[in-house]
Amino acid sequence: MKKLKGLGNERYNVMFHTHTVSGIVISFALFVIFYAGAFSIFRHEIAQWENPDMRQPLNENFDIDQAIKIIDESYGGLNYYENTNIWLPTEESPVLRVYGAIDQTDSTTERMAAYISPATMEVQDIRKPLTTVSDTIYFLHYFRQIPVAGIYIAGLVALFFLFAIVTGLLIHWKNLLTKMYAFTKKGSWKSIWTNAHTVLGVIGLPFQAMYAVTGAFLGLLILILAPASVLLYNGDQEALVSKVNPAAALTVEKDAQPFEHLSLNELYQKVRLEYPEFIVKNVNTRNYGKEDAVAFWNIDDHQGINSTGSLAMRLKDGEVLKEYSLIPNQKTYSMSIIGFIFKLHYSTYGGNVMRVIYFILAMITCFMIISGILIWRTARNNKRYTLKQRNFHHRITKWYLAVCLSLFPAFAILFLANKLVPIEMTDRISVVNPIFFLSWLGLMIIGMFWNKYSLQNRNYLFIGGLLSVLVPIVNGVVTQQWIWDTWNSAHWVAYIDLFWFFAGVSALYVSLFLLKIKDETDIPQPIDYQEGDEGVDDLVSEMEDTEDGKKENVTDVEPALNSQLAIKGVSN
User: Fold this and answer.
1) What value does the mean pLDDT of the chain take?
2) Which of 227, 395, 514, 559 could cysteine-pair with 9, CB 3.0–4.6 Å?
3) How much is the pLDDT for 518?
């Protein structure tokens, strides 16, 4: 096999430090994003688990027009000039979800959101929900709990993650393939963490690069569109938006006359017959009930990466307005790119198998982040740094690990709180959410008192394992719907219960196994060394053999090591 060309001395040093700095700065925030994001992939299924009212079979005999009428009456009149978006029932979310606008007494407009049960046509306000688990996790994924700036912080973290991926690829490029076979559980812990970090990074490279790009794009979308509109469209943002989404260019008259137009139910059946291989996800209406009313039917086969589309229909006669539609397989590049990015990021292609793969890869990335934190610390526990510096590195590592590892038991507490706080309680979200965030904070603080990293890992796994096993038990006791009851009637509920049970058992097993591990204290100790040895010692520490503790030449560090030896006048 032809040997790949590596970086030179100077470039290697630049890339190595860029990778280290960009990685360690964002590591704990990146862990939260990936961990919460993994659960968010199944947010609608989690909504079924948390709210018994959502546990109902899929009913395809729904009435869209009746749903709009009921919402209109419930909220005292919808403002149909604004978008009214109706998401149709699916197996994951078997209810109608309606998002619209209502006029206030002070002439302002406020957005509303509600879901309707197709079986009973009962209305539940989404913004005053009985449950909160799925939304809390989803909002945490992009830091919505931080007002205004949250999504931009998430976007910047994704951007720095992209830097870390590129620089990590460059410093390992010369022996990228051979490192795939380098992983072993023998040798020093530094070697184990280093090999695990490299191997898992290579395995998840396409997945992580995709999320870095799409996450940065979605988080910083406004910052991307602003300069693009100036450079390409002379500051006309509407022209730019209409280029990627023609529906944005369509206008309706605010004072249009009322009109008895075609039924949305009839048009829904028409779309289904025209595109039988696609699923109608939602319909977005403008000026519903008026003469120029238009409905946008969004369709997707949930298999292809670019298999989305929309049909703009005039409601008075059912005519398809092609200039405002995104016909599947006929879209231009600019029309396809936004939908492409959304499907990649939210895993809405490839079916449930792809979503499970996304979940597993997200968890692998979380483990890779933890190993990176430990590599950062162990690489600095040597003669190059003073005892004061090494104590600082130790405290930072403890804090980072506490933030990351405590999220596992905190999530289990969130699920438990959802069941233990009575669903009849008024404004129960103000109780459940503080329980989650305060327990997460408390677990972080407790973890700072465990000076061994192995102790942090063991204790968080043990606590999280115990709490996880309780999740399906508490759910069964409270709702009287055990796994064997929901297996056929609401199988997603059963899957989530089984996930927590097996996750808890696995965590308990690993934590009990870690109890037997005897390692040296993680607290930095004074090190005697001769003056001038710091640079060489730090670089040589990167070349530990993973099996026998021998030294071997690792091509990634050769350029930097040779440079240090040359400066000290040592021949190679």
Assistant:
1) 81
2) 559
3) 55
This prediction has a pTM of 0.83
Distance, CA of 460 to CA of 472 (rounded, Å): 20
Segment 410-424, tens digit of pLDDT: 999 999 999 998 877
DSSP of 15-59: HHHHHHHHHHHHHHHHHHHHHHHHHHTTHHHHHHHH-GGG-----
Could you tell me which residues come within 8 angstroms of residue 490 by beta carbon, excluding any fewer than 6 positions away?
A: 48, 55, 56, 481
Provide the 10 A C-beta neighbour count for residue 472.
24
For residues 160 and 25, the answer to whether their CB atoms sit within 8 Å is yes
Output b/e per residue, 536-565; b: 16+ Cβ within 10 A: bbbbbbbbbebeeeeeeebebbbbbbebbb
Q: Per the structure block, which two tokens stand in for 121?
A: 């046509």
Distances (CA, A) of 184 to 196, 454, 514, 548: 8, 18, 17, 11
Q: Residue 233: helix, strand or coil by DSSP?
A: helix
Give the Cα separation of 483 and 498 in Å (integer). Answer: 8
Which 3 state secondary structure label does DSSP give 84?
A: strand
Query: Per-residue pLDDT for 346 more than 70?
Result: yes
Report how far residue 328's alpha carbon sits from residue 63's, in angstroms, rounded to the nearest whole number: 26
Give CA separation, 502 vs 44, 456, 474, 496, in Å.
21, 21, 15, 10
User: Residue 287's CB: how many other CB atoms inside 10 A?
Assistant: 23
| Alpha carbon distance 281, 407 (integer Å) | 33
- Range list of β-strands (E), 212-363: 279-286, 294-300, 308-314
Average pLDDT over residues 209-238: 77
Q: How is residue 556 annotated by DSSP? A: T
Q: Model confidence over 53-82: pLDDT tens digits?
A: 788 888 878 889 999 999 988 888 888 888
